[in-house]
Every structure is written in structure tokens, then in C-alpha cells.
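> forwarded from #structure-qc
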């Protein structure tokens, strides 16, 4: 349950930043309503939880990421319909670009974390041989 909550909150964080950037870039030409913001945060949290599909051992990374992309596209499409926002090829392209950027950030963070752990393990190993 802790992992689900963490994934939901992480999804909200990525969604909030993305939504603010898109508003700042003028890609939402009208003032967002409370409902718009709530739906973006809720759907973003759901996208975060759906990233747990990557933890399923029955999928390799490629199948997991493709499955997550399909779920993400469905959730974004649903959010667009709920808010009566038009879903176009441009929106589809923006979603794909944002998706790649977010997953790149996550992979870089994972790589950095792994590097830190490996450095600490190597240091511990070297200290124990002294």
C-alpha cells in the first residue's frame, strides 16, 4: 500500500509540473477551473500508480513501458473528454514528448541511485579489507 501511495503522489507531482508548464506555454488558452486542476491531479496520480506495472516480473521492460504508455494515453484521453478539451494529433504528440521526458528523468534518477549504492557498497567492501 505504501508503494501505491508513493506512486500516486509521484504521479501528482509530475502531472502538476507538466500542467503548469503547459499552461505557461499557452497550450491551455483559457483559465483553468478547479475541476480542471483536480482532474489533472487525479489522473496524474492514476498514471503514477499505473507505473507499478513496471514492477511486474511477467513483463520485460519493453512490454512494461509499452503497456504503461497505452494506459497513460487512455487516461489522458479520458481526462481530455471529462474536461471537454479537444484531443488532436498535436495533443497526442505533446503527450508522447512529455512521456519521453518524464521517463528519461526517472531513468536518470534510477541510474544515479544505483551508482550511489554501488559506490557505497564498494567503499564498504574496501573498508572491510583494511
Amino acid at each position: 500500500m505504501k508503494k501505491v501511495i508513493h506512486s500516486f503522489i509521484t504521479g501528482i507531482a509530475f502531472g502538476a509540473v507538466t500542467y503548469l508548464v503547459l499552461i505557461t506555454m499557452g497550450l491551455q488558452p483559457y483559465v483553468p477551473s478547479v475541476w480542471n486542476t483536480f482532474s489533472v491531479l487525479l489522473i496524474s496520480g492514476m498514471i503514477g500508480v499505473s507505473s507499478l506495472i513496471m514492477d511486474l516480473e511477467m513483463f520485460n521492460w519493453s512490454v512494461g513501458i509499452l503497456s504503461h504508455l497505452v494506459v497513460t494515453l487512455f487516461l489522458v484521453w479520458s481526462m481530455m473528454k471529462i474536461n471537454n478539451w479537444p484531443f488532436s494529433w498535436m495533443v497526442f504528440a505533446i503527450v508522447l514528448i512529455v512521456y519521453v521526458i518524464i521517463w528519461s528523468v526517472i531513468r536518470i534518477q534510477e541510474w544515479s541511485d544505483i551508482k550511489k549504492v554501488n559506490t557505497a557498497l564498494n567503499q564498504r567492501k574496501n573498508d572491510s579489507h583494511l
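QC bot note: Residues 66 and 81 are 23 Å apart (CA to CA). The chain has one domain: 2-128.
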